[in-house]
Each structure stands twice: as C-alpha cells, then as structure tokens.
Write the structure tokens for this entry.
Amino acid sequence: MKPLIYLDNAATTKTAAEVVDAMLPYFTEQYGNPSSIYSLGRTGKEAVTKARETIARSLGARSDEIYFTAGGSEADNWAIKAVAEAYGEKGKHIITSAIEHHAVLHTCQYLEKHGFEVTYVGVDEQGILKLDELKAAIRPDTILISVMFANNEIGTLQPIEEIGEIAGSHGILFHTDAVQAYGQLPIDVDQYHIDMLSASGHKLNGPKGIGFLYIRKGLRIRSFVHGGAQERARRAGTENVPGIVGIGAAAGRAFRIMEEKTAKETELRDYLIDRIEQEVPYCRLNGDRRLRLPNNVNFSFRFVEGESLLMMLDMEGICASSGSACTSGSLDPSHVLLAIGLPHEIAHGSLRLTLSEENTKEQMDMVVAAVKRIVERLRAMSPLYEDFIKQESK
C-alpha cells in the first residue's frame, strides 16, 4: 500500500496531538455545564474564558469581542445577516467580492431575496480585488463590505488594510472571512480596520464544529441564536467546551509555530510550483505567485478533466482537491477560476494542493512525478489534445 500524502489542508487539517490532549479532560472529567454555579461547571467556564483570551490576544482584540460559533460558515452568516438586520434602516446595500466562499455568497443571495442589493466586485487575473471598482460601488446606503482575507481556492491574499481603510473612511462596516488566513498569517484587527472577522478551528489543526466571530465593541449586532444567555446573550446554547478548548489550544499553537511553519511551507510551495511549471507543459498557476497563502498551490492543466486527475491521484495515495471542499460534488467549474478569467474548459482542469508543516521535499517529488504521469495519460486519451499537438507541429 502506498504511503498517504495529504495535500488538502485547505479543506481540513489533522487535529494536533497537543490540541487533542487539551480537549480530552472536558469530555470525561471536567464535563460540567459552564453555566452551572458548582465547581464542575466553573472549571468549564474558566476553560472557555482562557480560550477566548488566547484568541483575543492573537488578533489584538478584547476577550469580550470574541464569540464562539459552530464554525466559519455560521460566523459568516451571523456577521452578514446581523448587520443587515441591525443596520437595514440606514441602508440596504452590501458589497462583497466575486470570489468569496459560498458561506458569504449564498448569504448575500439570501438577503437579495429579502430586499437588499448586493454588488459583487470583480478581481484581476491573479484574484486580487479591484480597489477602483470597490470604491466606485460605494453608495450612500452601503452598510457593509465583506471581503475574504485569503481565497480558499487559489490562495490569493487580498489588500485587507486598504479595504478596511476605504470602508472606515465611508462609515461602512467591514467584515472579513479569515477562515483560511487565521493561524497562517499574523492579523491585527485594529491595523486592518476590521469590524468583524470569521474563523474556523479545523483549518488550524483544531477540531471540527467550532469557530468564532470577532465583533468589534460597540456594534449593534443582535442575537443570532435565541434561547439562552450564553455568549453574552448573543448566541444561545450550551457552550461546546471541548471544542472551545480545542480551538484555543490550536490558536495558541498556530501563532507559537507560525514563523517556522510559514518558512517551511513557503519553501515547499515554491519548490512544487517551480517543478510543475518546468516539467508539465500547458499548465497555468492560478493566483498571485507571491501574494498567496504560504501553503497554497493551484494549477490548471489544459486538456485534462479535474475529477479524473483527482481520482487517479487518490489511487497514488495523494489527497488533493479541485477547489472548495464545500462544492466538491458540483459539476460546475469553480466560480473563482471563472472570475479570474479562465474559460470553462481550462477551469475544469484545476488542481489545488495545500500543504502542512508535516509535508516533505521527498513527498513533493513524488507528487510531481505522479502529476506528470497522470496528466500525460489523460492527455493521451484526449482527441482535443491530439488535434492541438498536430496544429502546434505545423
């Protein structure tokens, strides 16, 4: 059996051993409800408070600005819908980008059915938001700008500080989906003028089913889940103490090892990009070469169908994806790749490889060899490729 090479860390990450160790007591020993007044409950409440403080420090925020959720998608939904509810009397116009995660796009589409207008700002061929287009989209009734920190498919980093400044100068709230960036990059909410920020535990070696929303103090954001006073009466429901402990431990670990981890992932990323570009003809790197997440590699291969490529890589023991895990069952090409200008037939042949600090150079060599072999095999079965080569040789 071939050794597993896991290169889908944008979809989910392995929970770190120290995170599991931190969580375990809160399943079996310290299992009290943190809303209880007896000591077993108070222990859980103290653990929740500690995790909240850890996350707040990592963002330069206050601990009472961190609200735990069931994940990044819930946090995105909460941020956008709550602003629409609380500030809808001021205006009903929202601005986002054309390459957002579907947790943002589908929420915006939901609001469009309820009387709101949404402008979807375009990006350039590298996936970077067009700031001039953003500025031109602002109206007197604009209440929210929501732009992701880093794209989950092509890894491009957005000019978040500039976007935050633009929003702030117009008195518009600014939300960023930082699910891919949090734990990978240093983020200071004041420096970037961020009013709300979404993150998810399982993207940074924490558990699934837990995330958080940062809400700047003073915003009129109302309850998202009703039925109790948890999360300062803004999100009802008994706290997921093991999950909260887990995301707190994962955040602490991520920022402790960030410098070393980033350096290793960036080196492997660039090595992988260089080899594929040099050794696999008719390929295209998607996303900006430098302004991208340290662990993200995304290529399109002409005359190759992405699903076949993934299935054959899986047979080689390599876990990869063609884009967002949330849309892996869709037959449509990636909306992100279409937004950067790729035609449908090339967008269908995309491959996303997202690394971790556990990957090695030897594994990258194995991946390159497998990609070369599989792409050659798939192209050999393509009549379009055969015709293309005949035309090229004339």
